[in-house]
Amino acid sequence: MSASQKLGNTTFHGLDAVRLTLPDGSTAVISAFGAQALSWVPAGGGERLYLSPQANFGGSVPIRGGVPVIFPQFSERGPLPKHGFARTATWTLEEWREQPEAEEGGFACAVYSLTADDASRALWPHDFRAELTVALTRDRLDIELEVENPGSEPLEFTGGLHTYLRVKEVENVTLTGLHGSRRQLPGSQETKVETGPELMVDDEVDQVYLDVPRPLLLKDGRQALAIASEGFPDVVVWNPWEHRCASLKDMPANGFRHMLCVEAVAVGEPVVVAPGASWWGRQTLVTLDA
Prior knowledge:
The structure is a single chain. By secondary structure, this protein is mainly beta. It has a single domain (3-289), classed as Beta-galactosidase, Chain A, domain 5. 6% of the residues lie in helices and 45% in strands. Strands 6-7-8-9-21-18-17-12-15 form a nine-stranded antiparallel sheet. It catalyses: alpha-D-glucose 6-phosphate = beta-D-glucose 6-phosphate.
């Protein structure tokens, strides 16, 4: 029986999707469009990813929320469309596994792949194979991006996981763990060492932190989320705040109050993958009691 038959080809807002479910009630939903995690509900808890109620699910523009995959270009730091093309490509479901008998409440994962084709080569003339794995366990979500270089020349890219986290009220949350990293000044290559013990959001923020040395902790009232990454050396923190949010047609006017993007990225230095080699980066989210 194929993965798609076993899953029953569920849909999410009309898009082909996989719904992972564990015996303890944990769930995650991943869309084939963009290989994008759109929902994560830990056991006994509420939704932890922010998905805009005005997001466009037409399959031609990026979905506002969840965890978009940014590849092979971060933001507008290069000649490609903003954030590259992976988030608006339809990925192939390669594997689905569910092990309800696994320790600590079970395990489930879905694996998607994306390879170079005529459309990608028209924008970025390189061969590649990308694989996105979403793994669900009790109180934990792991998202891993692997990029293989089947070509004969080095493959160079920037990118990451543009994670939208749902919060009750963004002005009341704190993010710790950025102390000691280098903060890139907006519109400049200059950096400044972050000396603050914690980050609070009370205005628009779009900040790149380079070489973040430790895991992060997001506190939101009685809830807390540990955020760790491997392979991705940098972190982006983003919230559009009131005025920028009002200009986004796929966000409600008050949407900024209920989200904070904490992104695992590689932007300070491009990733370089040698011919025949591969690279991977992972972001791990774990729910905690604050």
